[in-house]
Amino acid sequence: MSVDGVDKKIVRPYGDTTGDGMVQVSFTLPVPHDKRGEGAAVQLAGKMGIDPAMLVHAKQMGDGYTFFVVYGRVNHLVDVSAVQVVERDFPLLSAKEINALVKQRLRRKLSVVGACIGTDAHTVGIDAILNVKGIAGEKGLEYYRELKVTNLGAQVSVPELVEAARVEKADAVLVSQVVTQRDAHLHNTREMSAAFREAMPAGRRPLLIVGGPRFDETMAEELGVDRIFGRGTTPGEVASYLAHALITSRRAAA
Amino acid sequence: MRKGLRERANHRVCQRGGRAAERSDGVRPKLDLDPVLVARARELARRAGQPVVDLARSHTTVSVERAVLRLAGVTGADPDGIPWVNRLVDAVVADVGLGHGVAASVFDALAREDLTDVTLLAQKAAAGSVRFTQPTGRAATAARRAARKAAAAGVRQIDRRRAERDRLVKRYGDPKQRPWIYLIVATGDIYEDIPQAQAAARAGADVIAVIRSTGQSLLDYVPEGATREGFAGTYATQENFRLMRAALDVSSKELGRYVRLTNYASGLCMPEMATLAGLERLDMMLNDSMYGILFRDINPIRTFVDQRFSRQVHARAGIIINTGEDNYLTTADAVEEAHTVTVSQLLNEFFAHEAGLADWQLGLGHAFEINPDVPESFRLELAHALLARELFPDAPLKWMPPTKHMTGDVFRGNLLDGFFNLAGTLTGQGILLVGMMTEAVVTPWLSDRDIALQNVRYVLGAAGGLHEDFVPAPGGFIQQRARQVLGEAVRLLERIGEQSLLTAIAEGTFGIMKRPPDRGKGLDGVARHEADYWNPATEILEAQPTGAEPTAVRS
């Protein structure tokens, strides 16, 4: 890999020659476009490790903001062998792939029941994941042809949720919790998981998933659920997890 | 006097856009559409839509009743932020139900309690110290007279706002170019939105839209007051409307062109949003006939009832509605499902005309969402955009930028937006929503907006008149494609006609969602009219069909 045969994976950015270290960045500074403004942009580029920095474009926008484009040689080295990656333990799949998996391997619609439980009336989270509208340009689970989604909405009691999961033959139950006053989200989640354990034998229990901005994703076991999703989770991640947990990993184990 | 003012204004609107004139001297039909087929498409849309109109005319909703009471003067919210108008309607519904309309009961109670302020009555009702009954005989006559007077004062305020807009447009002028340039701001904080909106106007935006907070469409009340936090958007409140409109009035004066303001009449509070928009002189409102049903799982009957009332208010207020056909193409394939856009446009047009909106108020939507990897994707886009243009020659079409096929590759995104802008000017679109190269990456940065506006200015500057030379070859690719889509639209409308629109929606004809009429959010806020149903606002709004005026003036 490396030029001199040593297995050190040190690289620099590539412009048009190996090792030239060239990068291009653009940013806005809250300054008017004048000599001093351009100097400020070059100073920032310098602090970013770009030296020499070529200021190739500067344009004032409105009062007192200027957009800059800078090209230059960056003096940082990248050690590829020292790169650490947090691996997701399931692959991210497209809606098409997920639909195909469900159709071919499950051979029926995958049933998902969602709700906000307790007094929580914030359906923002569950709706972002379930509604077709989705979030951040990603469609919600309703969009997946092979998923049957039942969104119970807000302020659903735990017994109602268990009953709905039974009626809909839920493969997975999604619960959203936004309100965290006096740890309501943790109490509600524990109550919910206990109710499912009590009502259904282990093999028949749906996958239990909770989500919300204040959950610690490592607490799943402690709360008695299969998975916790935190802030910024997209429908695609949830759907991919469903496919992984309910189809691909199960088949592998069987 | 008021009416005279409005007519003059409408006259000017028609002259100004020059759409009618433009059609007769400039733009000749380019697609050679079969006029018999076009007429048939409209007739089928009417047939599909009429049962829904009948349904809307025979039902009311909590939001319609709340809108009536807002017109009649109920304002403010309780200490928990729940509007007094919600508390009042809930109290009346608990005592006498929803199906009679709440206005007579409210004004009957007002007289019995010896009050003049309806908000005070709402506060007493919320405390449980007022009983409501359905008045009869002389009490009913007196209550109706008082309710009509109060609601008329609200409608008069909307009329004054409309006249005020007409005056300001006359004073400052409209944008010099078509399409109008439409930009979005959405920080969540109205006080942060204001300088951003003003900067956008200065940079060339003709229309500012303030995106709502995620999830507001599913709130069954309108939040109150100036708000400083939201999720990916700013809450739509009457006070936020007022603050932003006042700020854009300052910008209009500074820039010498009237800068328009847009918000959303969608979700569970459509009628109230329309009312507040009319009261605060908003200029455009997003208002689709089926969006809430398909994408937000709102009950179909609730949506159609709310939609009709909201459109009657928009008609009266001189507000341009923006419909949401672009959304179908974000879920379905933009080539295969192109005809569903046409069908929805035809239905939106029918519902809008029925509610009194004139053609110049119909910002029918469509979008540049074909996968750029599809061969000849740009020609297909031109065919679809031109089809909409020629089917609705007098509507200010709303042209929406690519979103589905935008990636983190901002350079490619900027190129795609350039083609989108070119298609917009080449096919004579009315309102162009500025595409951001950072779509799907971040909420737009200051520099993203600046780059996007440069893109628009370059294309409009370099090719703004190219539509004069752009004549698709007779019988060529573009003409054939447009005819094919129209043909598919007619066939879909025929299928809908066989079942009824509600069945079609229940069976998943639009988008891919199945939405039965007995399901969905907000159903418990719907009631069939009792024999004595009455509301003063509908009576006033239907007495004077404002939508017909521009046509009369034009001819």
Automatic annotation (TrEMBL), chain A:
Gene3D superfamilies: Cobalamin-binding domain (3.40.50.280), D-lysine 5,6-aminomutase beta subunit KamE, N-terminal domain (3.30.30.60)
Superkingdom assignment: Bacteria
UniProt-listed InterPro entries: Cobalamin-bd (IPR006158), Cobalamin-bd_sf (IPR036724), KamE_N (IPR028991), KamE_N_sf (IPR036843)
GO molecular function: cobalamin binding; metal ion binding; protein dimerization activity
A Pfam short name: OAM_dimer
Domain B12-binding per the UniProt entry, residue ranges: 109-253
Matching SUPFAM superfamilies: Cobalamin (vitamin B12)-binding domain, D-lysine 5,6-aminomutase beta subunit KamE, N-terminal domain
Name of the molecule in the record: Lysine 2,3-aminomutase
Protein's organism: Micromonospora musae
Lineage, top ranks: Bacteria, Bacillati, Actinomycetota, Actinomycetes, Micromonosporales
